[in-house]
Amino acid sequence: MKRFVYFTCMTFLFACTSSPHSNLIALDYEDFGPQVIASELIGMQWWQWQSHGDSRPQKEDIRVIVYKDVPLRLVKEAFPVDQSKLEDYRYIDCQSAYTYLQAKIQEDVLEEVTRQLSTTYQYISDNLCHFTDVKDGNMAKDFGIRNTL
Known about the structure:
Layout: H1 2-17, E1 24-28, H2 35-42, E2 62-67, H3 72-78, E3 88-93, H4 94-107, H5 111-129, H6 132-135, H7 138-143
Parallel strand pairs: 2-3
Antiparallel strand pairs: 1-2
Helix pairs in contact: 4-5
């Protein structure tokens, strides 16, 4: 019975990922800004199984899974960190993504970073979280995002 429940939950999780408004999306680490600000939300931009970064920084393929209405345990089971395959994932719920992105966009420290964060904010809103201030056009108007909702 336990296997049946697990299989059913995993099937539902994967079925949801095929629709444009699924329960999770995968993004790149860079979508949350440079390491200097993104690290407060998703950790440092090196493999999480390493104690520190390389003295010659390299771009590690770190994916960020933003999820909604799915238990974190199932998200981690669907996207497990696997050192042998060099698969590193960070997990963020919609509310944390919203809070982080809204704060960093409002800070508007560098135009290029604000533009990237605004794009990420809009993408997450359109495809997963449906942030109300994007629907109202507030963030879209303030940061030059085209409101498509």
